[in-house]
Design brief:
With about 210 residues, this protein is mostly helical. The protein is built from eight helices and no strands. Helix 2 packs antiparallel against helix 3, helix 2 crosses helix 5 and helix 3 crosses helix 5. It is globular. It starts with a helix and ends with a helix.
Length: about 210
């Protein structure tokens, strides 16, 4: 195996084992069940599911808050559904390739089953007053859970004035209708990387001079 292949294998091994020595390592069936359960019972999409997944995983001791924030940040930076990206990252960290496959199955299967059932049986009831009222109430709850997710994530990430400033700039750009949110994300990411690396280099220089 060449040097590049060895480095790739070493990185994969370190990623899969990182921060798991002091945490509970679940079985494949446990991983499948928790993702299947959250996928089947959560209304509101990926961000709401992420909030519930965080609660479940930290409660079971499968992940700590710092690792969760790291994986969530990575999942949001990769094209695709956030909850799917997160389940793949977390599944691999916990149980390698087997964890990837079982977590992916657990998070995708409920949506497939539910959509088949909706298409087969529930379309005629969408205009029913009771069903419509349930969806409106669920929408209000989803808004609250999304706000809680943003608050929790912000408390973990916004640890200094620079991070707060970058977050505010991203919010301003996202509110401008002529700017696509992806453009705002990339722009603030590039600026943040430049400023944070520059600050880190300055601190290291000052430390070495001192």
């Amino acid at each position: 195996m060449d040097e590049k292949g060895i480095r790739s294998q070493t990185f994969a091994e370190e990623f899969s084992m990182k921060d798991t020595d002091n945490l509970n390592r679940p079985g494949l069936l446990e991983i499948f069940w928790i993702y299947f359960r959250v996928g089947a019972l959560t209304i509101g999409g990926g961000l709401v599911m992420i909030s519930i997944i965080r609660h479940e995983l930290t409660r079971k001791g499968w992940i700590d808050d710092d690792t969760f924030v790291e994986e969530f940040t990575t999942a949001t930076s990769i094209p695709g559904a956030i909850i799917v990206n997160f389940s793949l990252l977390h599944g691999y960290r916990m149980r390698g390739v087997g964890g990837v496959l079982i977590s992916l199955l657990g998070v995708v299967l409920p949506s497939f089953i539910i959509m088949v059932l909706v298409a087969a049986f529930l379309f005629p009831y969408f205009d029913h007053a009771g069903f419509s009222g349930f969806l409106k109430g669920a929408s209000a709850a989803v808004s609250a859970i999304l706000a809680y997710t943003a608050l929790t994530f912000g408390k973990s990430v916004l640890k200094g004035p620079l991070q707060v400033m970058l977050a505010l700039c991203a919010l301003i750009l996202a509110l401008l209708p002529q700017i696509h949110p992806v453009v705002a994300l990339i722009a603030i990411g590039v600026v943040g990387n430049f400023l944070l690396v520059r600050r880190k280099n300055r601190e290291e220089t000052e430390s070495s001079d001192g």
